[in-house]
Each structure stands twice: as structure tokens, then as C-alpha cells.
Amino acid sequence: MRVFVTGATGNIGSHVVKELIGAGHQVLGLSRSKEKAVALAAAGAQVLHGTIEDADILKSGASQSDGVIHLAFNHDFSRFVQNCEDDRRVIATLASALAGSARPLVITSGTPIANTIPGEPAREDNPIAGSDVHPRAASEEAGILASEIGVNVSVVRLPQVHDPVSQGLITPLIDIFRQKGVCAYIEDGRVRWPAAHFSDVARLYRLVVERAEPNAKYHAVAEEGVPMRDIVEVLGRRLNLPVKSVGKEEAQDYFGWLSMFATRDMLASSAKTRQKLGWEPKGPTLLEDLAELRVAAA
What we know:
Strand content: 15-25%
CATH superfamily of the largest domain: NAD(P)-binding Rossmann-like Domain
Helix content: 40-55%
Number of domains: 2
Shape: globular
CATH class of the largest domain: Alpha Beta
Structural class: alpha/beta
CATH architecture of the largest domain: 3-Layer(aba) Sandwich
Number of helices: 12
CATH topology of the largest domain: Rossmann fold
């Protein structure tokens, strides 16, 4: 299979490219950076130079491939809503090049989109929140529209994806802790975040594009929920910073834009994903990677 990968030089995308090539697939990877394109080519991929803002480039990549894995996303959370709306447009563009074919389009979302049943973990077949509630749902809304025009769409929902260098939302959280000089969690720290190692997530994307099941939803979850207190205590030891609890009323002042996540229990299940694809995570746990965090002590 020849797979077009957007975000091919990103933290997740670079692992997905290696996973696909290692399994015998050909990869056409989108790269806006000449420097990163060198590494992409060295990994064995063909490079398509361009950006997700260029509709013609996106259509070209999709048109000359047997399937698409869309991973590119702007992670500047100061403009999170706009970035989600931009992703809606990108998915629509990719879909226009695949409409009426059986070629799979694998799009990316987040597990919190399916945290819609109080007291229960996010599950693959839960109703999803709308983009008016959670902006990232714009991607899944675009996927639904794409399926209505005959596109074979499936969704991978991500937790905190980690290694010792990068850990999803925990990476900017570390920056906040270093600026504040203290590591903090909300109240009793029982809020939980799901997690998975990069290698396991990359393998799941490969399995999903190979399966090519229309309208399927998958959760890239190795750990259903790691308590925030455990995360923060490990970071405190690693960064040599004190740890404290703060009240919910302090969350916005302390965490800024991250407060919407720091106060939210995001427990998520991957039971149906594992059953359907035979996917079993093998990588290190989140706390194991945080204990090896490659950040100089404060």
C-alpha cells in the first residue's frame, strides 16, 4: 500500500512513517521543512514538499496514494479553536480527492470527544461532543460529512502520547511548572489522563489504515487513566521542584489555557479497539517515561 501521511515529520508522524515502511508499505510524506524532509527521506519515504494550507498539494498527495493518514495539526493552543476549524477544512480537502473510492482516510481526534457519559470512560462507540462543546470535535464532524460523500473514513482518538522527550499536554504543563517554580495538581489530584507510548500509537495507525473499515472509531489508549497527582509527583522529583495542591478556583490563574484539561477527568477505554484489531500496547508507561524525562532540572 502507498500511504500519504500528513504531519509525517511530527512527533507521531515520524513514528508512523517508520512503522509503515517497516511493514512493507510505501510512504509519501508531507513536509514543509527542508531540514525535516532530509530525515523523512532518510527513513525511506518519498517527500511531498508543501503545507496543509495548500489545497492543491493535499489533493495531489491523496490522489496518488492508496490511503491517507492525516496527522498534521497546529498545536499552538493560544488559537486552539481556529486550529480545529482549520483541520475541518483540511479533512474536507482530502475527502474531495478520495470521494467515491474505497481508499481509506484515517483522521485524528482526541479521546475527550467521547467522554460524554458521566462517570464512565470514553468508549469508541460513545456519542461524541459537538465542536460547540469541544473544538477538536470539528475533525470528527468533518469526517462524518466526508463519509456522506462516499469517503472511507475512520478515526483514531489520541490520549497523551509519550516518550522521554514529549508527552502531549504534559510537555506544556512542564513549562508552566518551571515558570511557576512549583508543580501542582487540582485538589486531591484524582483527575485522570489516558496515555500511550509513541511506538504503540504508530502501530495502531498502521493497523487502522490496513483494516480500512468505514466509519470505525479507535482509541489509542494503553493506560486508561493515570492520576494527575502521580504525574505531578514524578515531575516534581524529576525537575527538583516542590509539589502542591491548588483549588479549582485557582486553576485558571495557575494553568492558563491548560486549566480546561487540568480540571477534567479524561478516563478512556480501548477495549473494543484491542478486540477488533488485536492491538496490544507494549511500550513503557507514562510514569516510566516521565521518570526518564529529558529536561534539565530547574
